[in-house]
Model the fold of this input.
Amino acid sequence: MFLELKNINKSYGNKSNRIQVLKDINLSLDKGDFCVLLGPSGSGKSTLLNIIGGIDRSDSGEIIIDNEAMTAMSDRQLTAYRRRHLGYIFQSYNLIPNLTVRENIEVGAYLGRHPLSVDEMLSVLGLKDHERKLPNQLSGGQQQRTAIGRAIVKNPDILLCDEPTGALDYKTSKDILGLIETVNDHYGCTVIMVTHNDALKNMAHRVISLKDGTIRDNYLNASRMRARDLEW
Amino acid sequence: MTNPLRKRLPRDLRSDFGKYLVIFLLMVISIGEVSGFDVADSSMIRAYQESFEKYNIEDGNFLISNKASAGQIRSIEEAGVTLYPNFYRELVLDNGSTLRIFAHRSEVNKACLMEGSFPRQTGQIALDRMFADNNGISVGDRISSGSRSFKVTGLIALSDYSALFQNNGDTMFDSVRFGVAEVSQEEFASYSKKYLKFCYSWKYQKSPSSEEEERDMAEDFMEKANDEVRLEAFTPRFENQSITFTGEDMGSDKAMMQAFLYIIIVIIAFVFGVTINNTIQKEAEVIGTLRATGYSKNELIRHYMAMPLLVTLVSALLGNILGYTLLKDFNAYLYYNSYSLPTYVTRWSPGAFISTTLIPVVLMILITYLSLKRKLSLSPLKFLRRDLRKTSRGRALPLSRHIPFFTRFRLRIILQNIPNYMILFVGIIFANLLLMFGLIFPSIMDHYQATIKENMLCPYQYILQIPMDAMDEDHRFSSFLNLLYFSAEASSRNEDAEKFSAYTLKTMEKKGTRSEEILLYGIKRKSSYISLPTDLADTEDGTEIFISSAYADKYRLKAGDRITLREPYDKDTYNFRVRGIYDYQCGLTIFMDQEVLNRTFDLDPDYFSGYLSSSEIKDIPQKYISTVIDEESLTKVSRQLMVSMGSMMNLVCAFSVIIFMILIYVLSKTIIEKNAHSISMTKVLGYRGGEISRLYILASFLIVMIFILISLPMETAAMKAIFRIVMMTSISGWIPFYLDPLIYRQMTALGIGTYALVAILEYLKILKIPMEEALKETS
Done:
């Protein structure tokens, strides 16, 4: 297994108003899997993504990635882990406002040991004509494409997507999902995507459904659909 | 691959050009001035120190009433010194100033020729450069004293008169009314002995190895010399203000300037800290994303430190270039304006580089690094959630619903910006302190002059010069007869004239303060000029005295205190008990019963040494008058300080106004910018411009007003403390602290004016932001 989570627990708050957001989560993913984490608001899916991404820590349990135990890592090691293995995409694009599209993608490329070509990335993302533009000159879809470029240009092992289409319209959302699919197919990186859009489960290899901090469903998708064929 | 974040730097610079420009200018001016000052000061100090050897400056001098005989000289020199006659005469020029004239010196205390040539013939004179400048005299001009006239052949600096003190006990020198000059030996030889002052300089045959040894040697030598001749004055070099004042002042100036620079740098670093903090808040999600993607904390710290460091480095570079060129000359000019220094050679001081470049850069690195490290130590998740508090978010302070909505809104803005306001408060205190420093100087001087005019004991005080033969203890009978003759000759028939006795003692030396001369007045009972109790007497605790309010203020003395003073020229000490304070600000003086004074110092019961008078005394032979203390002589301190410090203070004033405006501008801008998004949002919601300014700008305006007002007493207290330190360490005598209430009004008006200007600029900027910007998610 490339990624393994064993008995992950996480709670927030202090004694009187403590809320357990994750309860005994166990899951494993192979390299190159496309996994969708589904669930309503407050189900714990973003928290689980953040723990996998090493930007939040579990209270107990174990995370093993590529045979490395993440739970024992120091902050410095976690930074190195993220640098080496992870790409992140958020609902808000979080681009650097005074860097151009190309430069924003270069920000990601700088971190990779064997980064992909920025030019190739711009072509794949359909941003070649916009490479000199600043984020505030782009549409929401173009900004999210740039964010995807920044995340994958460093050639990560895992691409973590937190509601990547949450702020986009239907058509643009499908474009973006197509792009993430292409990245998964083309570059072979494991994708874990958090969404509350039930329709997106159809494009995943593995679907994990969370409710109240526990896994309600965890299954392999037998008949996977292409992003362009999704409807909601 | 280089870090692509670097590409942000020029764009950050462009987008915030105004802020960086003012910070840059502030640093260039500060570093340039301190660097220029440091180089000029180091070079001057070096020239000053080298002048001791180069011009063979004396180890001390003493004054006697008659020329010493060859035997006396031989005998004195047995104490291990070499004596050099350094006679002079004083002439009152037609412009009213006094010129002390020496014969051209070739052995000790040699002169540095600054312009022209030394006098070679009779009728020629070389004047002290500063005295000539202050009196508008140039080489080639003629100066005259009655029927005597001189052609000025050169401008010089006498190495033993770098500060032009006429009398060593003077509070301050007066380079407008007093100067020194050299004439040819031939010219000097033509002067009658009766006008000459017989001053002898001495050099030790074996130089003392420490200050302590120098003091011991001086004391021993004084006793030896006093055995041979009757000393009228004895001034070892370390006590000679004309020689030491300049060096001490230059050293303390340097420390002050460096402290000033470091305060500026710390303030600027805090300004950067505040702006970085705001940037971090603005870019929280970007930072969270970068951290989540694998950017390390140190990479981001380096990124956010780059601009402050770059600005500091470029400012230091440009500041140093300016300092070593233009400002060095300017600072040297300020010194030449104050002191009669010899020519100097510019020394490239490594100390200047360290203090103006290395230390500011290190300070900037340290402060920005620590503030960034603290801020960026939050987890990436916190950044992504824009939750940048170290501690858990407390509940909002409950505000009563009875408070009008606008007031509550303003209170929320104030509470939200407390850290920024705190920095603004520090900035206001510092800028105002500088401003006060610049503004207060003329008011202190004006007040001092006015106080002196109102506070004089009487319009004229005459200190008499008692003939030596009237004081000769070895021939008591003839000296008694001589004293009787002197008393008859020096008796005035002026009805206003009132006899008094005067005696000079010195304060005991304490660490950090200089020994000062205290003038003791022996006043007759029921004096018309000084009203003292009639029962002042000797007690077991010491002689009862009144001290001047200046003396009480300077040494923090009060009624009931005991003080000990010493003889200037031997080790005898005297104890006194302070019975009360006499309101007199013109000098450090003691008032006591005349009979008691005469008895205390073993003087004849009828002894007197001067007159107090409300009108000019004209019936005493001039030869018996040593000094006339009138309004002019008492105001020479303030006159000289205005001459030497006036231009410096104008500079400080202008500089402090600039710093004040820059600090208020940068810090207020930061606060308003922090709220720019909310301001735009209120526009979207339909608030009008006036309402927005009432909400946001007025809140900060009120805070600035409150800060300015509450900072004033703090600045006054700090200024009083600084002023006291300067008075204790650098000035003989006492100038009372005075703060003209007008200064408070000026400072408040300037603060409000500056903030209003900044607020208008910011408001106009905010009004230009299109409303859709407030709603648009740009990152």
